[in-house]
Amino acid sequence: MGIRTSSAHLSVAVAVRRSRIDGYGVFADEPIAAGARIGALTGEAITVAEGRRRAAGRQRIMLVELSESRAIDATRSEDALRFTNHSCAPNARIQVQDGAIEFFASRAIAPGEEITVGYGATHHEGRLACRCGQPGCAGWL
């Protein structure tokens, strides 16, 4: 059973529930058109240095670097999008602009489908196995 969620930061209805990829994931509760804004991620504003300190030795941290000096730690955020899992064939993308972290559908997403993004460079530095299960999976984050 998933938790339906709504927030001023979401543009579409989503649910948070167990994911086959890892832990919990975010799932579309309604059809999402290609290019549609899914929502924004919020969290604690910190320095990149503090973010890297927090990430050291931890497998689970929800951290987005906004610039060379600023980051957002969404680990304690109540936003559903903090549960967005990585995929080597993502159906959404993260856009960081003017300090905002927004998610957009890269293609149409069907109700019940897990919303995924490509994380890009992470603090795991290629040491954490990728579990996306997609054809052509890189194997590591």
UniProtKB/TrEMBL annotation:
Keywords: Chromosome, Methyltransferase, S-adenosyl-L-methionine, Transferase
GO cellular component: chromosome
Entry's localization field: Chromosome
Residue ranges constituting the SET domain according to the UniProt record: 12-120
GO MF term set: methyltransferase activity
Biological process terms in GO annotation: methylation
Keyword Lipoprotein attributed: no
A Pfam family this chain is assigned to: SET
InterPro entries to which the protein is assigned, alphabetical: SET2_Histone-Lys_MeTrsfase, SET_dom, SET_dom_sf
Major place of residence: cytoplasm
Record's protein name: SET domain-containing protein
Species in which this protein is naturally found: Roseateles asaccharophilus
